[in-house]
Amino acid sequence: MCNRLFLNIILYSFIIFSGCSVFFDRETYEPGKQIKLLPPNSGIYHGVTPGIDDKSIEESEKIINEYISLSKSKPVWICFSNHWFEGIKFPSEKVKLIWNLGFVPYIRIMPWSKFSEGVIDEKYSLYKIINGEFDYYIALWAYEARNTGIPLIVDFCPEMNGNWFPWSGILNGGANPDFYGNKQYPDGPERYIDAYQHFINIFRKYDVNNITWVFHTNYNSFPDEEWNSMLYYYPGDEYIDWIGISVYGAQKPTDKWIEFKDVMDSAYNEMIAIGKNKSYAILEFGVIETKNPYQKAGWVRSAFQDIISNRYPLIKAVSYWHSKWENRDGSISDMCINSSFYSLRAYSQGITDTIFKSQPVLMIFD
User: Fold this and answer.
1) Do the domain assignments include residue 4?
2) CA 48/CA 65 separation, integer angstroms
3) Residue 153 near residue 159 (C-beta atoms within 8 A)
4) Is 250 inside any structural domain?
């Protein structure tokens, strides 16, 4: 069944872009040819992470449709996480659901065996990934991805410059250059780079080319030291298509309140210093609801004003984190766009601005 969102606009013409290229057509696409998500010709893409990681296909469809109804908009991509809790498995059903609903599947690769913060995951360590211990299963994942014929966005081990995920630089050698690889380069970032390059190289080996690769950092680093800056983790222009960051306000009730631009300004400058001729994105953003019924709405409204005003001219996509969860202390963090009437109104008014595009530019390259 043709994808209603894309195929209406991509069956018409050829363009010249870095050689001979053609708009993606699912009916004639031959697995193995290279597909990439290009930035919009004008404006900014809109994506969302709607909290469907652990949801059934039926629940996921309901959540996605509810988001569209609430926001009064249609995203380019739907993001979810591919946790390796029960093994390395390609999420084919969820990928096909998202595509058939009319959106590009965006997959965050999360190599851990359980939810854990601040500790190495012994089962899926970067060291084991680099050494090829999971090559067979990664190759199967890649093979299934290739055979879907669906354009995918893949994000490997996000927010590595933080201190919470097991693939974080601080947990994998940190600033010390003495125990791995180049003795002039900090071990933590170097292990991350080698793991990501190794992962992509497996896909290249088997001609899996229907993937747009994303490099995804946090807006600030923990610890905030030079060796742990975004640039040190970058796998290289020959591996990465899009570069992006997570930009959050308060994520828990005890967090200090900080406005979007106060978080984004310095992060933006650091991010655009990475890579050459790349597309840049705000891959995650959001803030929790508070007891003040206007506080979150004001944050969301200001964030959209800053984005729409061209304060960050190289940003070509934004993606909101639309979910709610319980913290260890029993408190609730509600980042959903409909956490209150005022927050929903601020979000829907922002995301329906004409600058935000819902039609992707998907290209096949010879």
Assistant:
1) no
2) 12
3) no
4) yes
Nearest C-alpha neighbor of 213 from the set 159, 279, 269: 279
The parent domain of residue 184 ranges over 14-365
pTM (global) more than 0.85: yes
Sequence-ordered strand ranges (E) for the chain: 14-16, 20-23, 34-38, 44-49, 77-83, 104-110, 152-156, 211-218, 242-248, 279-286, 315-321, 324-326, 332-334, 356-357, 361-365
Residues 316-349: pLDDT tens digits?
Answer: 999 999 999 999 999 999 999 999 999 999 999 9
pLDDT digits (tens, 9 = 90+) for 142-166: 999 999 999 999 999 999 999 999 9
Strands 34-38 and 44-49: unpaired
Q: Give just the sign of the alpha carbon dihedral 348, 337, 49, 96.
A: negative
Backbone angles phi, psi at 195, to 5 degrees: -65, -45
The number of folded domains in the chain is: 1
Whether 117 maps to a domain, the answer reads: yes
Beta strands in 157-274 (DSSP E): 211-218, 242-248
Contacts of 211 (CB under 8 A, 6+ apart): 35, 145, 151, 152, 153, 154, 203
- Residue in the structure block whose two tokens are 């404006």: 43
Provide the b/e sequence for 102-126 (b: ≥16 CB within 10 Å): bbbbbbbbbbbeeeeeeebbeebbb
Q: 134 CB contacts (<8 Å, ≥6 apart)?
A: 88, 124, 128
In terms of Cα–Cα distance, which of 212, 177, 211, 209 is closest to 191? 177
The domain that contains 189 carries what CATH number?
A: 3.20.20.80
**Hey, what amino acid is at 323?**
S
C-alpha dihedral, 215 to 218 to 220 to 226, nearest 10°: -40
Q: Quick check: is 37 in a domain?
A: yes
First CA to last CA across the chain, in angstroms?
A: 25
Query: Where does residue 51 rank: exposed (0-12), middle (13-18), buried (19+ CB within 10 A)?
Result: buried
Residue whose structure tokens are 């304060």: 311
* Mean pLDDT of each 10-residue bin along the chain, 366 residues long: 38 36 71 89 97 97 98 98 97 98 97 94 97 98 95 98 98 97 97 98 96 98 97 98 98 96 96 95 98 96 98 98 95 97 98 96 88
